[in-house]
Design a protein that fits this description.
Elements (H helix, E strand, L loop, with lengths): L7 E7 L4 E7 L1 H10 L4 H18 L6 E11 L3 E6 L4 E5 L2 H7 L6 E12 L4 E8 L5 H12 L3 E11 L4 E12 L5 H12 L16 H6 L6 E8 L1 E2 L5 H8 L3 H10 L4 E4 L6 E4 L1 H17 L1
Parallel strand pairs: 5-11
Antiparallel strand pairs: 1-2, 1-10, 2-9, 3-4, 3-6, 4-5, 6-7, 8-9, 12-13
Helix pairs in contact: 1-2, 8-9
The chain binds zinc ion (ZN).
Length: 298
């Protein structure tokens, strides 16, 4: 088995031990997302881990759709969000002002909650679950969510490492295992120990950035996994002017008014992909009127 291309998600099932195995290397996508947010260091690693976790979680969706992870934190960062589809599309964000404020310092981050939302292919909500984050660690929190909210046995581990000299992530990716009901206890215990013990740095590609999925896959050889699906990973954001305007309306009357007073097109950015939308004063005025109507109705 050779996964020649970079940035892949690989799904396999174990013949000998009855489990599902998903491996992901999303280093390039995570680097592209981190660059758009001008995130380095810890923030870039968080984006790398959150995107890998979203991709692994999305691999368990029953059909086309989206898995959304919403980590609420306190301290220097208030939230990390990542969305992914089962076919390898992914986006992620940390609030812009918080990335700029932390710079290259390691932020102080305290765990709060993790919300997981699943959408169908039309974007309608299929399910929503919320758990306390055990620690600020992405792997532990998502595993905790899976054990609390889904039927079954799981272990998810994601990892990302930022290289200060290169100014980018050396790798971002991870592993998810899920036991099938017929899995034997002893096999599952051995698999848990195997995945817990993975040192991702030891599986980093040497010639280029990224994780060596071949060497990760080889760890499971004893359980004879069979690969049945493989997708390329692409950063993707389905944002629209309408959606960005909806986010803007949360500024409320005062925020809208001060934008209007500037008298020129307001430059709004999608918080996920940083795409810029120019909104004319006419459109702002219309929103302001609508906001006023809503206030009057209260
Ligand atoms: Zn966008």
């Amino acid at each position: 088995m050779t996964f020649l291309k970079l940035d892949r998600i690989v799904r396999a099932t174990g013949d000998a031990a009855k489990f599902r195995l998903v491996l992901v290397d999303d280093t390039r996508a995570a680097n592209s997302i981190a660059a758009r947010h001008e995130a380095g260091g810890y923030a870039a690693q968080l984006l790398g881990q959150a995107t890998a976790a979203a991709l692994l979680l999305a691999s368990g969706l029953k059909g086309p759709g989206t898995a959304q992870l919403r980590f609420s934190l306190s301290g220097d960062l208030s939230r990390v969000a990542a969305d992914a589809t089962p076919f390898g599309l992914v986006r992620a964000m940390i609030p812009r002002e918080e990335i700029l404020a932390t710079g290259s310092f390691e932020p102080m981050v305290l765990p709060q909650t993790l919300k997981v939302i699943k959408l169908d292919k039309e974007g309608s909500r299929v399910s929503e679950g919320i758990v306390e984050m055990v620690t600020a660690d992405i792997s532990e929190s998502v595993t905790h969510y899976l054990l609390q909210s889904e039927q079954g046995k799981f272990l998810l581990r994601v990892a990302a490492l930022y290289d200060e000299t290169e100014g980018k992530l050396r790798y971002a990716g991870g592993v998810l295992i899920e036991a099938f009901p017929e899995a034997k206890e002893a096999d599952w215990a051995a698999l848990l120990a195997l995945v817990t013990g993975i040192d991702f740095s030891g599986h980093a590609r040497t010639a280029t950035e990224g994780l060596d999925l071949d060497s990760l896959y080889a760890l499971f050889a004893l359980y004879s996994p069979q690969v049945h699906k493989e997708f390329e990973i692409e950063p993707f954001c389905p944002c629209s002017e309408e959606g960005v305007l909806r986010a803007l309306s949360s500024l409320g009357r005062e925020g809208l008014e001060s934008l209007l007073l500037e008298g020129r097109d307001a430059e709004l950015h999608c918080e996920f992909c940083r795409k810029m939308y120019a909104v004319s004063p006419e459109k702002l005025l219309k929103m302001l009127n609508e906001a006023e109507d809503e206030e009057n109705e209260k």
